[in-house]
Design a protein that fits this description.
Structural class: alpha/beta
Distance between the termini: 15 Å
Helix content: 25-40%
Oligomer: single chain
Strand content: 25-35%
Radius of gyration: 16 Å
Number of helices: 11
Shape: globular
Length: 251
C-alpha cells in the first residue's frame, strides 16, 4: 500500500504566509521560505504554495519565491495561483517547482489540463477544486473562492481526470479554517468515483482529523495549514500517531 502523504500548505499574499477562516479574515503566519525549510526538515512529504490572490488580481505567480523555495528544501513542492498557460507552467518548473496546481484557469478553459498533461506529463498537473455544499450538492468556486460557478464537484473532478489531471486537491470551503475536520463523505465519494489520488484540504484541527481523512475519507494525502504554521501539530509526532493506527506513512 502506498504511503499516505502529509502536505503543509502555505497560502502566500504579498510575500508572506497567511491563513484565514472560510477563505477570509487572513492573518500572517510567517516567512514562506523559512516555513518550507522547517517542514522539509521535520519530515513533510510535500509542500503546496498557493499565491492566493494571483487569479483575482490577474498577476503571474511569484517566480522569485519559487526559486528560493527550491534552493531551501529537499522535498517536492507544488505551486498554484495565476497559472493560465503552458508557458506559465514551464517557467515554474524551470525555477524548481515539481508540480503545478490549476483552479480558476482550468474551470474557464478546461483544455489547459490537456495541454499541461500532454507537454509535461499528468504527474505535473494538480487540479485544485474549491467547493461549498449548497442546496444538496457541492458547487465549485473560482477566483480564490470569490466567484460561484455552474460546475459541481464530482462532474468537474471526473472531467479533470479524463483530461489528464494527475491529482485532485479538494478543499471544502465550508470546513476551511474551522478546525472541525475534513469533508470525509465528499472525499470518500471522490475516491470511489476516480482513479487518481485525492488530496484532502479544509478543516484540519488535530491529528485525529488527519487520521479520519485517511481511514474514513480514503484520501491519499492530507493537506493542512494553520495547525502546522502555529505549532498545534508537529509533523514527526503526527506521523508516529498515524503509524500506531496502522496508517502507512514515511517515517
Amino acid at each position: 500500500m502506498l504511503a499516505k502523504r502529509i502536505i503543509p500548505c502555505l497560502d502566500v499574499k504579498d510575500g508572506m504566509t497567511v491563513k484565514g477562516v472560510n477563505f477570509v479574515n487572513l492573518r500572517s503566519a510567517g516567512d514562506p521560505v523559512e516555513l518550507g525549510k522547517r517542514y522539509s526538515d521535520e519530515g513533510a512529504d510535500e509542500l503546496v504554495y498557493l499565491d492566493i490572490t494571483a487569479s483575482y488580481e490577474h498577476r503571474k505567480t511569484f517566480i522569485d519565491l519559487v526559486r528560493r523555495v527550491a534552493q531551501a528544501i529537499s522535498i517536492p513542492f507544488t505551486v498554484g495561483g495565476g497559472i493560465g498557460s503552458v508557458a506559465d507552467v514551464d517557467r515554474l518548473l524551470s525555477n524548481g517547482a515539481d508540480k503545478v496546481s490549476v483552479n480558476s484557469a482550468a474551470l474557464n478553459r478546461p483544455q489547459l489540463i490537456d495541454e499541461i498533461a500532454r507537454q509535461f506529463g499528468r504527474q505535473v498537473c494538480v487540479v485544485a477544486i474549491d467547493a461549498r455544499f449548497t442546496d444538496g450538492q457541492w458547487v465549485c468556486y473560482e477566483k480564490g473562492g470569490r466567484v460561484k460557478t455552474g460546475r459541481t464537484l464530482y462532474e468537474w473532478a471526473h472531467e479533470a481526470q479524463e483530461r489528464g489531471a494527475g491529482e485532485i486537491l479538494f478543499t471544502s470551503m465550508d470546513h476551511d479554517g474551522t478546525k472541525n475536520g475534513y469533508a470525509c463523505d465528499a472525499l470518500r465519494q471522490l475516491h470511489q468515483q476516480l482513479q487518481i489520488p485525492i488530496i484532502a484540504s479544509g478543516g484540519c484541527g488535530n491529528a485525529s482529523h488527519i487520521a479520519d481523512a485517511f481511514k474514513t475519507g480514503l484520501a491519499d494525502a492530507a493537506l493542512a495549514a494553520s495547525v502546522f504554521h502555529f505549532g498545534e501539530i508537529q509533523i514527526p509526532t503526527l506521523k508516529q500517531h498515524l503509524h500506531t493506527l496502522g496508517i502507512p506513512v514515511r517515517l
